[in-house]
Amino acid sequence: MKVYLVGGAVRDALLGLSVTERDWVVVGADPAAMLERGFLAADATFPVFLHPETGEEYALARREVKRGEGYRGFSVYAGPEVTLEQDLQRRDLTVNAIAQDTQGVLTDPFDGRGDLARGLLRHVSPAFVEDPVRVLRVARFAAKLGRYGFRVAHGTHRLMCAMVERGDMLQLTPERLWREMMKAMQADQPWRFFEVLQRCGALQVLIPAVAGAMGAASARGNAADSPPIAALRRIVPASEAPSLRLAAVLLGCIDAPEETDRLLASIRADRETAQLLRRLVAGRGLCDRAGQGDVDALFELAALWRAFESGTDIGPLVAVCEAQMPGSRLGHCLQVALPAARAVTAADLRRQGLSGAALGRAVGAARREAMSAALGDAGLLT
Fold this sequence. Notes:
This protein is α+β, with helices and mostly antiparallel strands. The chain has helices at about 10-15, 30-35, 85-90, 110-120, 135-145, 155-165, 175-185, 190-200, 200-205, 210-215, 225-235, 240-250, 260-265, 270-290, 295-305, 315-325, 330-340, 345-350, 355-375, and strands spanning about 1-5, 25, 40, 50, 55-60, 65, 75, 100, 105, 120, 150. It is about 50% helix and about 10% strand.
């Protein structure tokens, strides 16, 4: 039984990047041998086991044969006679098909190290076309490695285009799209995820609203950034939160509020992202005026965001809106106006004998007046 470190851990180490998780492949063993050594079965139908101490995944070397449609349409064989090279051959990209033994010796049958040096994301074999998830993974790795100059190999791009034309993207579930997209949003250049999918035609199938907002794209990309990509580029330095980054893309792709839920459902967005986008869409019409020092717009936007409560974080609102509107003073205006508004409390006015609806109106009027005075003092009042 031999054990090898494989995939992303080897790739990232060769690139000099930090390794956050490690995956292993085991050659010459069967499930009974793994269980005897104390490993825990991680899946009832798949030959993956968890190390009893580290919890890391150890997969038996395996061969796969395409039997049906989609990324689940494979039969898997993981007998002890399966070789390391056979296991590596089933992987998606050459840079992910490098193995390292316990002595540090590398096995690289498909020249992954050469492609690391060339900055190429290249498919291992023609079997790449058998799994539509690989299109998403190529786009995600382009986002992860783009800052190091990596690009999709021409031959791999052609295979991706052929898969789209064949209708393979229709086999992808929204849940799998969401998972790969959110991983890409955590990368250094998340916009490349959408650019790669747009260039091969997959984005028009998967997220038509984003594809339409990006416009036509050639294999070499657009001459200038489209609005969704430009907004994403601007928010990346401001926030590492994947939900905020994705919201910056999606906000500019929604023309009417009723489109919001349809778009969120089509990508199976999580609750956090869904709530964020709905509030952003609801307040979008106020952001431009608020950024110009319009007191009424600032007040309404703060009320929508529940920003009069001292613990409310308005950072997401500011980050996405300023990414959509470069040069906006929204953050500055809110920074000046909110402390003044929060200083107005219902308790102060209640002591004047006000209650009920009259108290609510008085609090609102006092907060508007306080915001106006603060903006005026700072030279920000419209």
